[in-house]
Amino acid sequence: MTKTIPVLYEIEVNITRLLGAALTLLAGTPLFTKQSLPEVTTEAFFEAVYRVEGQNRALILNSSLSEDVMLVMQRNTQRVMQLAVLGRIAQHLERSRDLLAPEECVIVTQFLGPAADSVFLLGTRILEYLLNPKKTESLTVAHLPWEQVMVDGALQAARAEIAATRTLSPLARRYSRSTLWAFQVACDAMLIVGSR
Fold first, then answer.
1. Is residue 5 predicted with pLDDT exceeding 80?
2. Nearest 5 degrees, angle CA 33-CA 112-CA 35?
3. Can you give the chain as a three-state secondary structure string?
4. Quick one: how far is CA 93 from the chain centroid?
5. What separation in angstroms does the CA of 19 have from each of 67, 112, 125?
6. For residues 21-25, average pLDDT
7. Which of 61, 81, 117, 135 is 20–30 Å from 184 (CA)?
8. Mean pLDDT throughout 66-76?
9. Rg of the chain over all Cα atoms, to the nearest angstrom
């Protein structure tokens, strides 16, 4: 057990770092218009996620650990899975946008950019929570009411803009709708990563 604690701590630190890396990946995609962060490659990100997953799995295979420690590791399994989801969303945003015509990219960025930035802000608040946790509380949506309202409002506004605009092609509409869905998945994933 004494050897397990440092490994659990290392996994926790790495999960926090990887959330920051996931936000950096998202900020590097074209829709996130107000961010300027160092470059992170998707390949390096996924390699790091898989390393943390392997660390956690190795602990789970140790049957001598207490039930409390096993519960922590099971939660960490879910958190690491959601980090991979965030990486896949960043890939979606980067790749699918390349299919659009340049003039449609401008329109779509105008509509979806504020929603993207609100998602990024929610992520940074969750990262802040991981760096400075309140020991007696577990992170939930209730801890981030203003950020959640802002994300919901930005997503609704983007949906309304897309529905009202007749100049977008069917492909651009599909891209916009799938991207808004990806933003909602990203918010849910970040909340799971932020839980302990």
1. no
2. 15
3. CCCHHHHHHHHHHHHHHHHHHHHHHHHCCCCCCCCCCCCCCHHHHHHHHHHHHHHHHHHHCCCCCCHHHHHHHHHHHHHHHHHHHHHHHHHHHHHHHCCCCHHHHHHHHHHHHHHHHHHHHHHHHHHHHHHCCCCCCCCCHHHCHHHHHHHHHHHHHHHHHHHHCCCCCHHHHHHHHHHHHHHHHHHHHHHHHHCC
4. 12
5. 27, 22, 11
6. 90
7. 135
8. 84
9. 18
Token readout for 109 is: 């960025």
Give the C-alpha separation, 118 to 129, whole Å.
17
Distance CA(154)–CA(70), nearest Å, equals: 39
Say if CB 168 and CB 107 are below 8 A apart. yes
| pTM attached to this predicted model | 0.86
In the numeric block, the tokens 């701590």 are attached to: 9
- Rounded to whole angstroms, what are the CA distances from 43 to 19, 25, 47? 15, 11, 6
Residue 3 φ/ψ, nearest 5 degrees: -75, -25
pLDDT tens by residue, 164-179: 888 888 888 888 999 9
How many CB atoms within 10 Å of residue 79? 23
Contact 172, 107 (CB under 8 A): yes
For residue 135 the two structure tokens come to: 């020991």
4-27 and 102-131 helices, crossing angle to 10°: 150
